[in-house]
Amino acid sequence: MSAQKGSLFLLKIGDGGNPEAFTTLGRLRATRFAIDNAPVDVTTKDSAGMRELLAGAGIQSMTVSGSGLFTDSIAEETLRANTSSGAIANYRIIAGNGDQWAGAFLITAYGRGGDYNSEETFSLTLESSGAVAFTPGA
């Protein structure tokens, strides 16, 4: 497999419609995600002093974070509205090879900033709420 361009790694926000349309948060400079599998420890006295974990148990979650240029786009307006209301909305993450993750997320952090001689920026963190569907790329 060849290397993938980071600019092809996209975060899209749903509009809540039916059918739902997704818009790319287009001025992100960095986007990343992590999937966490919280382990369930089943260690006992019979474990010979080594930890044992229960397969297929525990809580799985996904965290998405990003930062980029603030442009006051429609997608950013939706993002700010979801932040202010605490709404859980649908998002898609698309990798350069076409892999996709889609699900409902809560914005747990949103910030904006700027230096006197530079552009205004924003950052965000999303936490999954419910199942996140994975679709492999073509």
Please give a quick description of this structure.
The chain is mostly beta strands and 138 residues long. Helices cover 9% and strands 48% of the residues. The chain is elongated and about 60 Å long.
Order of helices and strands: EEEEHEEE
Number of helices: 1
Strand content: over 45%
Mean pLDDT: 92
Uncertain regions spanning at least 5 consecutive residues: none
Give the termini separation.
Answer: 13 Å
Largest sheet: 7 strands, antiparallel
* Spatial shape: elongated
Gyration radius, rounded: 18 Å
Fraction of residues in helix: under 10%
Strand order of the largest sheet: 2-1-5-6-7-4-3
| Structure class | mainly beta
Q: Compute the number of strand runs.
A: 7
List keywords for this structure.
138 residues, mainly beta, 7-stranded antiparallel β-sheet, 1 helix, 7 strands, 48% strand
Can you put this structure into words, describing what you see?
With 138 residues, the protein is mainly beta. It is built from one helix and seven strands; from the N terminus they run ββββαβββ. It has a seven-stranded antiparallel sheet. A hairpin with a 5-residue loop joins β5 and β6. The mean pLDDT is 92.
